[in-house]
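Researcher: Predict the fold of Guanidinium exporter.
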Amino acid sequence: MAWIILLIAGLLEIVWAFAMKKSDGFTVLMPSIVTIVTVLISFGMLAVAMKSLPLGTSYTIWTGIGAAGAFIAGAAFLGETLSPMRVLAAAMIIGGIILMRLASAE
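Model: Structure tokens for Guanidinium exporter follow.
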């Protein structure tokens, strides 16, 4: 169950990062509210997952999902650049997430 909670926490990190971008420095109300609510839920779920998962594993996977997901969301919805180097970097982050999960005994 901790892994599912961690996955959802990571997906919510993508949501709050995207909403933060759309909030224009917290000057647009609705994206600002979405940012604050989802960051609190995401942090809370990360804390719950950390009760039974190691710190390094939990935090690495949580930030990795958020980083790779934000990169994908930025490219898909905000027209951000998809250079070969950026795609390779995102692929390496995703590879790191997979390796961290495989290396975990839980």
